[in-house]
Structures are given as structure tokens and as C-alpha cells.
């Protein structure tokens, strides 16, 4: 896609994040279509929450939290072409912000059902501020220098929580007090189902905003900068401003994801947001399908499924306790690495790209059969 097409009006032919050319689009029809998809997804989520056991509800809520981060990283790396190795630190910023807000409310005896929404909003605002600072620095760098800056963020932010242990309680972290489900839902309403509803609603809202963003004029400028910065400048696009905006958007969703993880676990500690998490997030979006929001879903599922897979594998092996613990800790990274190599060789478009090609092949065969 050229930078000239990125500057054209919204009604002209564009290329979406999911790949492939699309016909003329109207903003209203796109918004309505996305609203319909979100509404159907919300209804399915509510139905599934009643159909599965509490532990599966908690796992689905965790997938939703990770999906916020992987979707934002997909926009940043796949859509705008900026490499980030520090999204785990941005998630930590959101997690600690929601913990500090919730503790401040409870210490002052302030209670209410809307307090969690205030804390989540504060987490997003705090992460946006951090993302803006990092984004301004990142907009001046390219390649390994950009990766180095974001890598430094991934190392520095968890270290700050240990340095200022009077505020963040060091390695032990902070608790995140959360009120139980509303009494209107019933006295015995499962708490895990309530967690899934909270995480699912926040994630669906974030995905709705991202989906409309990537189909808007800003999405086209993101792609133009990714494809050719020189051509984008000649087309009148402010490259640095576009890159900062992409970083801020991605940071906001990462902060929301980290805040949701803290709410689900009801605690936050620096060990949960180390460099390994940042690497996992980047590998997840590449395996799922870089540049595709639907691919971010597969990446989030893998982030939750791999620890369970590692635990099951180590249980099947007769190893000493120390060896089994080391294996279980390193196995997810090894599986991610092997999967990444296989996907890059067999399906460069990721899982979603492979499914899209398979779907197009089936559709073409069906059309041939009808003709």
C-alpha cells in the first residue's frame, strides 16, 4: 500500500489490517458492523460463562486481559511497524496503578460499584502518560535502537517497584481489593463468572475502539508510515506524530490488560511482569498473525494455554522435584520459540493467515462446485 492511498478520503478503496483489498466503505456501516460483532461476542461470552466451570471462567477472563495487550501490540508492530520489547512493563504500570487506586479507596473507607471503573480508567491514563514518553523517544529511533529502548523500559519499570518498596511493597507486591459481585446477581453468584464479565466487557470495548481505529484515516496513516516513511512524508503525513500516536494507543490497551490481570489475581508483583512476559507477548502476536486483530486472539489464547500444557507435560514425566520445576518454568518459552520457527516457515501470516487461506480455498471450491 502506498502513502498516497493512505492520505485518500475514507470512501476510497483501502486495505484493511486483516489483509486484502476492500471496496468503498462508509464510517457508519463499519461502526455498525463492529458494534454488531461486539454485541454477538458479548452474548456468546455470557452464555459460555454459564456453561463452563468456574476455573474455565477464570481462564477465559485471563485470555481477555492478555488480549488487550496483544491487540495493542498488533496495532503497534503489525500496523505501524514499531518493535516493542517493553509491553510487559506497560502492563505492570497499569497493574500497579489499579492496585494503588483500589488500596487508596479502601484505606479511606470509600466503597461502591463504580470504583473499579475509576481505577481501571486511572490505569489507562497512567499508562498513556508512560507510553507517550517512551513513544516520543521511540519515534526518533529505528531498528535495534528502538528495540533497545523498549527493552530498557522492560527492565527498569519492574526494578523501580523494588527500589521504591515503601510505595510498591518490593518483591511481595500489593494486594488488589475488589468488591464481590452485586447482590442483584444473587448471593451465590460465582465470583469467577463476575470476573469474566468485567474482563470481557473491558476487552470488547477496547477491541471495538481498535477495530474502528484501524479502519479509519489514522489506520491508513499507520500503514503508510510502516510501508514507506519517505513516501508518507511526501504525502503530507507527520511521521513522528503518527508513531507516537500508535505507541500511545498500544500503551493504553497494554495498561488496561495489566490492570485486568491485577484485578483477576487480586494482587500484583514485579515478578509477574518481567522481560519474559514482553517476549511472550511479541511472539504471541507474530504466531497469531502479525497485523491482524483476530490473530491477537490466538496469541492471547496461547499465553494462557501454554502454562497448562507445560504443567501437564511435567506431570507425565518422572523427574526430581527441582528438575520438574525448572522444566515447567522454561518449557513455555521453548514451546513458544519452536512454534514461532515452525509458523514462520510453514505459515508466514501466522495462525490467522493460515485459517484465512484455508477459508478462501474452501469458498473457491464451493463456488466451483456450484457453477
From TrEMBL:
<dbReference type="GO" id="GO:0015658">
    <property type="term" value="F:branched-chain amino acid transmembrane transporter activity"/>
</dbReference>
<dbReference type="InterPro" id="IPR043428">
    <property type="entry name" value="LivM-like"/>
</dbReference>
<keyword id="KW-0812">Transmembrane</keyword>
<feature type="region of interest" description="Disordered">
    <location>
        <begin position="1"/>
        <end position="25"/>
    </location>
</feature>
<feature type="transmembrane region" description="Helical">
    <location>
        <begin position="333"/>
        <end position="355"/>
    </location>
</feature>
<feature type="transmembrane region" description="Helical">
    <location>
        <begin position="271"/>
        <end position="290"/>
    </location>
</feature>
<dbReference type="InterPro" id="IPR001851">
    <property type="entry name" value="ABC_transp_permease"/>
</dbReference>
<keyword id="KW-0472">Membrane</keyword>
<dbReference type="GO" id="GO:0005886">
    <property type="term" value="C:plasma membrane"/>
</dbReference>
<feature type="transmembrane region" description="Helical">
    <location>
        <begin position="31"/>
        <end position="52"/>
    </location>
</feature>
<feature type="transmembrane region" description="Helical">
    <location>
        <begin position="244"/>
        <end position="265"/>
    </location>
</feature>
<feature type="transmembrane region" description="Helical">
    <location>
        <begin position="145"/>
        <end position="164"/>
    </location>
</feature>
<dbReference type="Pfam" id="PF02653">
    <property type="entry name" value="BPD_transp_2"/>
</dbReference>
<feature type="transmembrane region" description="Helical">
    <location>
        <begin position="88"/>
        <end position="106"/>
    </location>
</feature>
<feature type="transmembrane region" description="Helical">
    <location>
        <begin position="112"/>
        <end position="138"/>
    </location>
</feature>
<feature type="transmembrane region" description="Helical">
    <location>
        <begin position="58"/>
        <end position="76"/>
    </location>
</feature>
<keyword id="KW-1133">Transmembrane helix</keyword>
<feature type="transmembrane region" description="Helical">
    <location>
        <begin position="194"/>
        <end position="214"/>
    </location>
</feature>
<keyword id="KW-1003">Cell membrane</keyword>
<protein>
    <submittedName>
        <fullName>Branched-chain amino acid transport system permease protein</fullName>
    </submittedName>
</protein>
Amino acid at each position: 500500500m502506498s502513502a498516497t492511498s493512505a492520505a485518500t478520503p475514507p470512501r476510497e478503496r483501502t486495505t484493511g489490517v486483516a489483509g486484502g483489498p476492500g471496496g468503498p466503505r462508509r464510517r457508519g456501516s463499519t461502526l455498525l458492523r463492529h458494534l454488531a460483532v461486539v454485541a454477538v461476542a458479548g452474548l456468546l461470552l455470557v452464555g459460555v460463562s454459564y456453561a463452563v466451570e468456574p476455573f474455565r471462567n477464570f481462564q477465559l477472563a485471563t485470555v481477555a486481559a492478555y488480549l488487550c495487550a496483544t491487540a495493542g501490540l498488533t496495532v503497534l508492530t503489525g500496523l505501524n511497524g514499531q518493535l516493542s520489547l517493553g509491553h510487559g512493563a506497560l502492563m505492570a504500570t497499569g497493574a500497579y496503578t489499579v492496585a494503588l487506586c483500589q488500596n487508596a479507596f479502601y484505606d479511606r473507607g470509600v466503597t461502591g460499584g463504580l470504583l473499579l471503573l475509576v481505577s481501571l480508567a486511572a490505569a489507562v491514563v497512567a499508562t498513556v502518560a508512560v507510553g507517550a514518553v517512551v513513544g516520543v523517544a521511540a519515534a526518533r529511533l529505528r531498528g535495534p535502537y528502538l528495540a533497545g529502548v523498549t527493552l530498557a523500559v522492560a527492565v527498569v519499570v519492574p526494578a523501580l517497584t523494588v527500589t521504591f518498596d515503601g510505595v510498591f511493597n518490593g518483591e511481595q507486591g500489593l494486594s488488589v481489593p475488589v468488591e464481590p459481585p452485586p447482590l442483584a446477581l444473587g448471593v451465590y453468584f460465582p465470583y469467577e463468572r463476575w470476573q469474566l464479565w468485567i474482563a470481557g466487557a473491558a476487552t470488547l470495548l477496547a477491541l471495538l475502539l481498535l477495530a474502528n481505529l484501524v479502519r479509519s484515516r489514522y489506520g491508513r496513516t499507520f500503514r503508510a508510515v510502516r510501508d514507506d516513511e519517505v513516501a508518507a512524508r511526501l504525502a503530507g503525513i507527520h511521521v513522528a506524530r503518527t508513531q507516537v500516536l500508535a505507541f500511545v494507543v498500544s500503551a493504553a490497551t497494554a495498561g488496561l490488560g495489566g490492570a485486568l490481570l491485577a484485578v483477576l489475581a487480586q494482587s500484583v508483583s514485579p515478578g509477574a511482569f518481567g522481560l519474559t512476559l514482553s517476549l511472550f507477548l511479541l511472539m504471541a502476536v507474530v504466531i497469531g498473525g502479525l497485523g491482524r486483530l483476530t490473530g491477537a486472539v490466538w496469541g492471547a489464547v496461547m499465553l494462557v494455554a501454554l502454562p497448562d500444557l507445560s504443567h501437564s507435560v511435567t506431570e507425565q514425566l518422572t523427574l526430581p522435584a527441582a528438575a520438574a520445576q525448572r522444566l515447567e518454568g522454561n518449557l513455555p518459552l521453548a514451546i513458544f520459540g519452536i512454534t514461532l520457527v515452525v509458523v514462520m516457515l510453514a505459515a508466514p501470516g501466522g495462525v490467522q493467515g493460515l485459517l484465512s487461506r484455508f477459508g478462501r480455498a474452501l469458498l473457491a471450491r464451493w463456488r466451483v462446485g456450484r457453477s
